[in-house]
Amino acid sequence: MSATSLAHAPADEPPTRAEPADVILTGDRPTGSLHLGHYAGSLRSRLALQGRCAQTLLIADLQALTDSSGRAAHAARQVPEVALDYLAVGIDPAQTTIAVQSRLSALAELTVLYLNLVTVARLERNPTVRTEVELRGFERDIPAGFLCYPVSQAADITGFRATLVPVGDDQLPMIEQTNEIVRRVNRLAGASILPECRALLSNTPRLPGIDGRKASKSLGNAIPLSAATDEIHRLVRAMYTDPGHARASDPGRVEGNVVFAYLEAFDPEPTTVEELKERYRGGGLGDVALKRRLEDVLEAVIAPIRARRAELARDRAYVVDLLRAGSERANATTEAVVRDVRGAFGLGV
Ligand code: TRP
């Protein structure tokens, strides 16, 4: 994938805190196709880091089971779809390893070992887990796997001796818990066998769904990364703007206006966006004209992704091979780490 096909997307500022020596690990649950929120929030920064640091993307199919064990087959089917999304935006498997979590048995073993270093009370205090437990209505019937997924995530991160983890701010508690585990392992080992890691937060604010709520596939309010042209139009036309802006001549609000949030994230001409904001605020710019610009901007972002995805999707065997090769490479790394950690626990060879 050449950089030119992404020329319409504003280049993400190179993340300043990434050093060439950093080892990057991040992951996605394979719950569905990725959308523009993923692109603005994390895929673009992964592209910016590609080639500058060692980077692994983990498709976290085991983690996807922790809150939906009944939908295991669904998660399994989504694994190649997520890989296709990665490739379609320009992730290059020669520079970035793409691996499947369930293929890496060392991660499961690390999880089992780390579970001895964490109390149930500590897991129950994890604010992200608490919110998610409420959101999913588990009440007292929390699957143990779900409560423990921060430990599995610590295994993912340390299994690659990752030092930098690009995540959303909701994942900060996971980084904190990972580092607690790292310090305990190192204390057991009497040496620094695992590095602590830092979060790399995106400099793009979270992109809302078309209705202004959190973008999510299940709410149907997200714009898929490879949306068809008519789907882009339908979703943009349904976008929440300013209910007080009935006529083009009315002054309109830019804050909380979803169209402007998307223009800010994707319009290649920031000065034009500023001018549009001014005209909108003052009265004199209608929603229809504004949305037409966004349709063009999004089409320019999505069209090359869509074309590349369609081309790659014709060769499923390529994707399967690529995931197998990536997982094999990752396996060598994680096996070496679990050997060290076994040693820290005093377990035999
Ligand atoms: N928890 C992340 C999510 O829900 C996915 C994930 C799994 C992850 N393992 C990871 C993220 C390791 C960063 C590092 O999207």
How would you explain this protein's 3D organization?
The structure is a single chain. This protein has helices spanning 36-49, 61-65, 72-89, 105-114, 120-125, 127-135, 144-147, 149-159, 172-189, 229-237, 258-266, 270-282, 287-313, 316-344; strands at 23-28, 54-59, 96-100, 164-167, 198-201. It contains 14 helices and five strands. α1 (36-49) links the parallel β1 (23-28) and β2 (54-59). By secondary structure, the chain is mainly alpha-helical. The termini are far apart. It has a three-stranded parallel beta sheet with strand order 1-2-3. Bound molecules: tryptophan. The site of tryptophan has 13 residues, from β1, α8 and β4.
Short structural summary:
The chain is mainly alpha-helical and 349 residues long. The protein has helices at residues 36-49, 61-65, 72-89, 105-114, 120-125, 127-135, 144-147, 149-159, 172-189, 229-237, 258-266, 270-282, 287-313, 316-344, and strands at 23-28, 54-59, 96-100, 164-167, 198-201. Helix content is 52%, strand content 7%.
